[in-house]
Amino acid sequence: MLPAIFFFRLRAGVCALPGIGWWKLKHKGLCFMTFSETMISFIGVAVLVALLWLAWRSTIGRLGKVSRKQLRALKSASLDRKQIMRRGEHQLYGQLQTLLAAYDRGYQVFPQVSMGELIACDTDEGFLAINSKRVDFAITDAKGYPVILVEYQGEGHDLDGTAKGRDTVKREAATRAGIGFLEVFPDYDVDGLKADIQMLLEETS
């Protein structure tokens, strides 16, 4: 059925051409296709449209209501890329990389990490409490386990006045999970930072 719709049908010098009215071209002029041929062609098109519609509905159904709502929100919004770290954070990131590389033990630094990716929790309420929090830097060991979480208390850290409460929750979660927690202020010095990192690595090893 479908080949008859989408391709030329050659038969004893006759070829069917798809188009409005479904013309049939013969050696001696043009004439309309028979009623049965036209109905078969339209039925074929209808079946194809129905299959495409079902495939589209299946895809949309898998997205779920929340995802569809989010996609609509994105389509009506203006999006642009942004820096993952501020200037002070970027400088600290470089310092942390340099200090940890000196240990040669496979330590890694990851910026802007959700605590839900670092700490497991056996209750939904507890998980939601940490999953909504993000740390500036997560230091992991050679196996990928977090050993120190670092918060940089620089410009923009407390824009809405709730940073102290958030940091208290982060520190509590890190401490209970056996992970070191370090707050770094803009006036830090490299030697002091190195000593703090060394102390926390020894405590969590």
Describe this structure in words.
Helices cover 48% and strands 20% of the residues. The chain has six helices and eight strands; from the N terminus they run αββββααβαββαβα. It has helices spanning 2-6, 35-75, 87-101, 124-131, 163-176, 190-204; strands at residues 9-11, 14-16, 23-26, 29-32, 108-114, 134-140, 146-152, 180-184. The protein is elongated. It starts with a helix and ends with a helix.
Outline the fold blueprint.
Layout: H1 2-6, E1 9-11, E2 14-16, E3 23-26, E4 29-32, H2 35-75, H3 87-101, E5 108-114, H4 124-131, E6 134-140, E7 146-152, H5 163-176, E8 180-184, H6 190-204
Distance between the termini: 71 Å
Class per helix and strand makeup: alpha+beta
- The shape is elongated
**CA-based gyration radius:** 32 Å
The count of strands amounts to: 8
